[in-house]
Amino acid sequence: MLTSLQIENVAVIEKAEVHFDNGLNVLTGETGAGKSILIDSINAILGNRTSKDLIRTGADKAVIRAAFEGIPSSAMDRLEQAGYARESDLLLVREIHLSGKSVCKINGMPATAAIMRDLCAGLVNIHGQHDSVGLTNPATHLQLLDSYAQNAKEYQDYYAVYHQLVGVKRKLDALIMDDTEKQRRMELLQYQVDEIEAAELNPDEEESLQTRRQVLANVENIRKNILCVYGCLSGGDDGSGAVDYLADASNALQSAAALDPSLANDAEHLTEWYYNLQELAADMASRVEDYDSDENALNEIEERLDLIYRLKQKYGETVADVIAFGEAAQKELATIQMADKCRDELEQEKRRLYKIAREKADCLTQTRLQAFESLNKKIQSALEFLNMSGVSLSLQHSKGPLASRGQDTLEFYITTNQGESPKPLAKIASGGELSRIMLAIKSTMADRDQIPTVIYDEIDTGVSGMAAGRIGETLRRSAKNHQILCVTHTAQIAAMANNQLLIRKEVEGERTFTKIFPLDEEGRIRTIAQLISGDHITDVSLANAKEMLDHAVNL
Q: If we measure between CA atoms, which residue out of 475, 416, 462, 454 comes closest to residue 435?
């Protein structure tokens, strides 16, 4: 349960620490005193989206801390799965900075808002004053029934088959095309495959062809330069070449080395250079014959490169892309050619899965219908206690196509007066009636809900008198199984609290501050009396407040 909440620099709250007890904790105060700030702070600590506008004017950041004790095993499982130590006590911290940065911590360790949100989904459930409007949405009715039915296994069994069925249907849709389109596509693919295969492409040939083309286009210039190199190395009729000069130099150095051994190493190197240069000259002489003009070969290379260029224009940026395109086209062509056989197999599989999915959906439907019978009896009893004895719920149900949540289309209908035909909640239920119906549903489902802390933000909206008193009694009874926090404006609900907190706005200097005070018995009597009679507290209202508190103790 939530044991304490520390708030710093949140809106008009400069610093406050609130302690909560087991049972029913009620927060009272004038409109605008700051009760909604507490709810916003709790929403922030739960990892929900927040804004830097929450920061108190003049402060750099807002800080919210929440301490929990005795967290359920399911929440400890989430802790462990997120990489945190498995502990039954929990301290959550969230800082909101003016820069927009948000810092989250779980038991002193860094966390993200998403992790906190996932963790706190099993710790706190908040029902805002507008949540009852959600009852008018039929999708909510399905969720409520599933939650009460606890049919997660039946749903998972159904969804696993439904997911397979959807996959098969998608494959079938991909195969289905009319004969004209099928023939046109096959002809195009066959043309593309034939064109690419006929080219007999090699991924590395384009670079090789471009190099060969450059050589053939410059044969005369290459021959001229090679002959020049050969002449410089070997000499000619007009004189000696570099090889001859290097031979003379080598012989001379060899003679000198015979007289001075220190020159032997240099003489050896010079002799080696002589032989290398002699070999290079011979190589140049042989290479000259390789460079003959071959116009036919050059034309063939140009044609091949032009073919490769045209294929790349059609099928990809590189030769490898063109080859990959051809392989993909071949696979698609084979798939279409085999489509009839594949389609028959997929149709057979679809029928098989559809039959199983429909059976699973029927099982899911039965859990929902049985759950409504049980749930409706309990809700009816709760509504009678909440001073709505003339109100009854019914279920409008029909089976439709299979969908992700099953085959059921359902909606809660309501009859507010005996003898009238049932109609959708959205059409005839008032705000006060919706609040009490929601409370009846939530209190009925309390034994199915393992979330330890439930928060009701102004559940009394639109109700007063006896109905408000019955809401208070329902909350107090529900608080035997859950910790409940309730923001209220009615004396009847406040009197039912096990722990009452007063939220009050004060002005000090030129600044506004919201402060939170735990109330003792005398403080509760005065506060409840004020809820009864306003600013003019009388002995009668005080006596009435005390009587209401005494009545709550005896429940």
A: 462
- Split at pLDDT 50, 70, 90, the class of 423 is confident
- Tokens of residue 537, six digits: 């507290």
Q: What is the pLDDT of residue 311?
A: 92
SS3 420: coil
Q: ∠ CA(293), CA(296), CA(298), 5° rounding?
A: 70
Give the angle subtended at the CA of 471 by the CAs of 500 and 385, to the nearest 5°. 145
Judging by DSSP bridges, how do beta strands 511-518 and 423-424 pair with one another? unpaired
**Dihedral of alpha carbons 106, 110, 113, 114, sign:** negative
Q: Is 157 left (phi over 0), alpha (psi -120 to 50) or beta?
A: alpha
Q: How far apart are CA 429 and CA 133, in angstroms?
A: 10
Q: How long, in residues, is the chain?
A: 555
Q: Would you state the pLDDT for residue 533? A: 85
Residues 151-208: pLDDT tens digits? 999 999 999 999 999 999 988 887 776 667 778 888 999 999 999 999 998 888 888 8
Indicate the residue type of 355.
Answer: K
Q: In one letter, which amino acid is 385?
A: F
- Residues sharing a CB contact under 8 Å with residue 518, sequence separation 6 or more, in sequence order: 19, 499, 500, 501, 502
Neighbours of 217 (CB within 10 A): 14
Phi, psi angles (nearest 5°) of residue 28: -125, 160
* Other CB atoms within 10 A of residue 270 CB: 19
Least confident of 10-19, 164-173, 249-258, 292-301: 292-301
Q: Which has the closest alpha carbon to 34: 471, 521, 507, 510?
A: 507
| Parallel/antiparallel/unpaired status of strands 24-28 and 499-508 | parallel
Residue 462 has pLDDT above 80, yes or no: no
> What is the separation, in whole angstroms, between the first and last Cα of the chain?
23
- Give the per-residue pLDDT at 131: 59
Half-sphere exposure (CA, 13 Å, Cβ side) for 369? 13
Classified as helix, coil or strand, 488 is coil
According to DSSP, the residues that pair with 410 across neighbouring strands are 397
Record the pTM. Answer: 0.60
What does the DSSP assignment read for 126-164?
EE-TTGGGGGGSHHHHHHHHHHHHT-HHHHHHHHHHHHH
What type of residue is 62?
A
Q: Give the C-alpha separation, 482 to 504, whole Å.
A: 27
**3-state DSSP assignment of residue 13:** strand
CA dist 15 and 40 (Å) reads 15
Contact 32, 493 (CB under 8 A): no
Q: Residue 400: which of 176, 154, 144, 142 has the closest Cα?
A: 142
Rounded CA gap, 539 and 533, in Å? Answer: 11
DSSP element (H, E) containing 213: helix 205-217
Distances (CA, A) of 420 to 135, 390, 423, 426: 21, 11, 9, 16
